[in-house]
């Protein structure tokens, strides 16, 4: 397959981008509002509703404030599932464009088209482009920063003649810095990108700059500016680390970490068992790295971002709270798509086209499985609320029993009654809570307070009332025995089971 290196964008590029964006938009918008909000998306609404002054200065969440700020301004236009997820769709589409441009710079229009197609049909990227969380924006910010680094690596590949700080900024340094600081204020996982980028600089510094002072000074100045701009959130992050807010995440074994990394960067459908397809992709990616051997700094950059960043992410958990999971390494799939596409583009036209079609067919199978299984981390809160809306009455009692009581249930409750008695059972702390409904800017949430509710103080029976029990991810083996004490005056009348969530209607025992 032929290549056209580093020329300006032309009509062919415009048509290729149009085709890819149409495909990427179709799969990212399909069933966008189908799944109800899940726990983290409900948390997004609560945090984004905070005042901007509080968003940017307080340790409310481990995730930095940039994405929440975007949603903050969006909430005034509505907070339906589609409205909340549209920004992630747009970020995902723009990421496809950035990866096309970056690959185009490195290896020509054919490789760029292949990389964009692979990314457009990457079902993990589709999943997080359909979720009201920060990961799609993180991918966009890092792809912008990566485009700046590639511009730098190509502009100053052969000579340092005329190197100045101003030219450094104009040749990609400013783009690198702006993308990086935006990424750092989007998600802390950007730190691992920043760490691996320093290997690019070391190789770039030695060859061809030969320890050139303008090179060192320009790189140091830009990265120091990024550090200074990030320092306020760095201090907040250190405070949250001291509070051990991520202690819930276990450190994965090396085998599970590799399986997760492979799931993100390999040929994946819902089925993990595809070793031969992944081996084919690995060969293509290695060929992609090898084809860049004449520009060693950029080859080192892509290799380290794909491999070493994941290792660093996992190793961090050996000395601090673990942070390694699929979503924190999702951005490396951008690099994998580039390298696989570059490797494919180096083949003769017919074998290259056949291999690309095979890769895209496997990706399409993954997309089909994703939508067929509704694989995204969404739960049936909307379905539970629909039943509750139809059957609840003033004076009813509501008990929410789960690990995280910031549930999106009340997002879907149409009307609330001041006569309801609301209780919660925190399964993580094994403690009872009482709650009151609050509504701020048309967004409902529960203000919880401690109570002595528990097995020794069961829920009181109210004549003519219904007890609604909502339970999710909270099923210890002794629930049957505990319920006999917890609800001694109640008997179950009906049960509804949805995806990951159960609704029970109990009435006074006769």
Helical content (DSSP H or I, runs of 4+):
55-70%
**How far apart are the first and last residues' alpha carbons, in Å?**
78 Å
Q: Please, how many domains? A: 2
Lateral strand order in the biggest sheet: 4-3-2-1-5-7-6
Radius of gyration: 26 Å
What general form does the structure show?
A: elongated
Which structural category do the helix and sheet elements fall into? alpha/beta
Main beta sheet: 7 strands, mixed
Please count the helical segments: 18
Look at the structure and give the mean pLDDT: 86
Number of E strands: 7
Point out poorly predicted stretches.
1-5, 269-273
The ordered H/E elements are: HHHHHHHHHHHHHHHHHEEEEEHEE
DSSP strand (E) fraction?
5-15%
Quick recap:
The chain contains 18 helices and 7 strands. The chain is of the alpha/beta class and 510 residues long. The protein has a 7-stranded mixed beta sheet, with helices on one face.
């Amino acid at each position: 397959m032929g290549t056209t290196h580093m020329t300006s964008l032309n009509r062919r590029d415009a048509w290729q981008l149009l085709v890819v964006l149409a495909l990427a938009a179709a799969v990212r918008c399909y069933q966008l509002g189908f799944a109800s909000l899940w726990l983290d998306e409900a948390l997004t609404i609560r945090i984004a509703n905070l005042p901007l002054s509080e968003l940017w200065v307080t340790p409310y969440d481990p995730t930095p404030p940039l994405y929440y700020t975007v949603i903050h301004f969006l909430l005034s236009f509505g907070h339906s599932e589609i409205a909340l997820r549209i920004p992630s769709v747009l970020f995902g589409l723009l990421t496809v464009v950035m990866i096309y441009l970056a690959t185009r710079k490195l290896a020509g229009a054919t490789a760029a088209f292949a990389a964009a197609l692979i990314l457009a049909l990457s079902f993990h990227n589709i999943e997080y482009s359909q979720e009201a969380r920060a990961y799609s924006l993180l991918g966009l910010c890092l792809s912008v920063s990566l485009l700046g680094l590639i511009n730098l690596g190509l502009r100053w590949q052969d000579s340092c003649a005329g190197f100045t700080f101003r030219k450094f900024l104009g040749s990609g340094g400013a783009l690198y810095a702006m993308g990086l600081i935006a990424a750092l204020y989007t998600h802390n996982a950007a730190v691992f990108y920043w760490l691996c980028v320093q290997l690019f600089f070391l190789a770039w510094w030695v060859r061809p700059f030969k320890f050139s002072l303008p090179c060192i000074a320009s790189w140091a100045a830009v990265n120091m500016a990024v550090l200074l701009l990030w320092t306020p959130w760095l201090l907040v992050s250190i405070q949250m680390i001291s509070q051990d807010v991520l202690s819930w995440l276990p450190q994965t074994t090396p085998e599970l970490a590799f399986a997760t990394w492979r799931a993100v960067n390999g040929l994946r459908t819902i089925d993990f068992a595809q070793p031969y397809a992944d081996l084919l992709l690995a060969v293509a990616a290695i060929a992609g790295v090898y084809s860049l051997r004449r520009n060693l700094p950029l080859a080192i950059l892509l290799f380290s971002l794909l491999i070493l960043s994941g290792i660093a992410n996992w190793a961090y958990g050996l000395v601090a709270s673990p942070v390694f999971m699929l979503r924190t390494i999702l951005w490396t799939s951008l690099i994998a798509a580039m390298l696989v596409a570059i490797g494919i583009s180096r083949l003769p036209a017919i074998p290259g086209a056949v291999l690309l079609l095979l890769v895209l067919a496997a990706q399409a199978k993954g997309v089909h499985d994703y939508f067929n299984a509704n694989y995204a981390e969404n739960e049936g809160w909307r379905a539970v609320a629909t039943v509750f809306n139809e059957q609840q009455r003033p004076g009813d009692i509501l008990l929410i029993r789960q690990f995280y009581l910031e549930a999106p249930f009340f997002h879907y409750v149409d009307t609330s009654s001041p006569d309801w008695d609301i209780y919660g059972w925190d399964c993580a702390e094994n403690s009872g809570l009482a709650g009151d409904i609050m509504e701020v800017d048309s967004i409902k949430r529960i203000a919880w307070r401690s109570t002595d509710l528990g097995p020794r103080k069961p829920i009181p029976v109210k004549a003519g009332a219904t007890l609604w029990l909502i339970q999710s991810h909270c099923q210890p083996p002794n629930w049957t025995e505990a319920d006999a004490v917890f609800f001694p005056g109640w008997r179950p009348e009906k049960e509804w089971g949805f995806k990951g969530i159960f609704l029970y209607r109990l009435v006074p025992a006769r």
